[in-house]
Design goal:
This protein is of the alpha+beta class. The protein contains 6 helices and 19 strands. The strands form 5 sheets. A 7-stranded mixed β-sheet has the order 3-2-4-5-12-11-10.
Length: 310
C-alpha cells in the first residue's frame, strides 16, 4: 500500500483516508440489507422462453424491459430489489414482474395469493402465456393471470421497429400492443391507446384483488414512460422514497440494518457535487454543509445512521 513514491503521495493518502472511513463504519458490521418496498421479479425461464425465434417479434428484449423498470424506479428515488421465483414475495409492497411469459399453475396461485393478502402486482405484455412446459394456456391471454388481472386478450399487436403508439396519459409505447377486453367490472383502466390499431382500447389496467391489486401494462413505455406511470402505482401501495425530491435520480440510496442501527448509504451518480437536505441522523462518513445537509462530492458516498441500535 506504500507506493515507490513513499508516504508523501496521493495514493498513500487515499489508502489512509479509506482506513479512516472503514474505522468510522465499524457500527455497520454485522448488518444486512433492508428489503426494499419494491421487488422486480427476474425470471430466467421467462427470459429464455420469451426470446425464442418463433414468437410474435424478434425485437423483444427481456433484460432491457426489466432494466427499464429498475431505471425508472431509480429516477424516482425508490429502492428496488431484484428477486427470483421462489423468493419470499411478501417482503415487498409492490412486485413488478415484466414479461413474465412462463407461469406454472403454482406460480399463478402464489401471485394471486400475494395480491389478495395485500400485495400489489404489476406485470406486462407477453406475460402468463405458457406453463412450465412451454404449453400455451388456452382461453385467451394473459393465460394463467387472466382472472387475476380481470382482462382478456385475443391477439397480440407487435409493432415494427420505429413504430410508436400514443397513450392518453401522454406516454408513448413501442414494440408491443394488445387488444384488451376488460372482463371484470372492478377492473380500472388507467390509460388507453390514443393512436394506432387499438385506439380507444385499454392500455394499462388495474384490478382490485382481496386487500391488494394487480396491474397490467400492455406496451413498452421505456424508462421515461414508466417513470411517469409509476407514481400512480406506487402511491396507492404506500411506497415512498428515502430521498428528498430534488435529488431523486441524482443520488442512489441503499439501506442496511443490524445490531448497530439502521444505516442509509448515499451514492452520487453524477459528476457534480450534490447537496442532500432534510435528512436526520448521525453522519458516519461524508461531509455536511449548511443546516446539516449532506454534501456528496462527484461520484462520492456518504453513510448516515438514521436509527440507533435498540
Amino acid at each position: 500500500m506504500v507506493p515507490h513514491a513513499g508516504a508523501d503521495s496521493d495514493l498513500f493518502r487515499a489508502v489512509t483516508a479509506l482506513g479512516d472511513t472503514l474505522r468510522a463504519l465499524a457500527p455497520v458490521a454485522g448488518s444486512e440489507r433492508e428489503p426494499a418496498e419494491v421487488g422486480i421479479l427476474f425470471d430466467w425461464e421467462s427470459r429464455w422462453a420469451s426470446e425464442q425465434d418463433s414468437h410474435p417479434t424478434s425485437l423483444l428484449d427481456y433484460h432491457q424491459e426489466a432494466l427499464d423498470w429498475y431505471s425508472a424506479l431509480l429516477s424516482l428515488g425508490v429502492r428496488a430489489d431484484v428477486v427470483t421465483t421462489g423468493a419470499d414475495l411478501t417482503r415487498h409492497r409492490v412486485l413488478i414482474a415484466p414479461v413474465l411469459h412462463m407461469v406454472p399453475a403454482d406460480l399463478a396461485k402464489e401471485l394471486t395469493r400475494y395480491a389478495e393478502q395485500g400485495g400489489h402486482l404489476v406485470t406486462t405484455y407477453f406475460s402468463g402465456v405458457v406453463d412450465e412446459n412451454d404449453h400455451v394456456w388456452l382461453g385467451g391471454y394473459p393465460g394463467a393471470l387472466r382472472e387475476l388481472l380481470g382482462i382478456r386478450i385475443e391477439e397480440f399487436g407487435p409493432l415494427p421497429a420505429g413504430r410508436t403508439v400514443e397513450l392518453d396519459d401522454a406516454t408513448t409505447g413501442t414494440l408491443w400492443t394488445d387488444h384488451i377486453t376488460v372482463t371484470a367490472p372492478e377492473t380500472e383502466v388507467l390509460a388507453r391507446y390514443r393512436t394506432g390499431t387499438h385506439a380507444g382500447r385499454p392500455a394499462v389496467t388495474r384490478r382490485p384483488a382481496g386487500s391488494g391489486w394487480a396491474a397490467y401494462v400492455s406496451t413498452r413505455l421505456g424508462a421515461d414512460g414508466l417513470a411517469a406511470l409509476l407514481p400512480r402505482l406506487l402511491a396507492p401501495a404506500g411506497v415512498v422514497s428515502d430521498l428528498p425530491t430534488e435529488v431523486r435520480g441524482l443520488v442512489e440510496a441503499t439501506v442496511r440494518r443490524g445490531p448497530g442501527g439502521r444505516f442509509l448509504f448515499l451514492v452520487n451518480r453524477t459528476d457534480e457535487t450534490v447537496t442532500v437536505p432534510g435528512l436526520t441522523g448521525e453522519v458516519l462518513a461524508g461531509d455536511t454543509g449548511d443546516g446539516g445537509a449532506v454534501v456528496l462530492a462527484p461520484r462520492g458516498v456518504a453513510v448516515l445512521r438514521t436509527r440507533s441500535a435498540g
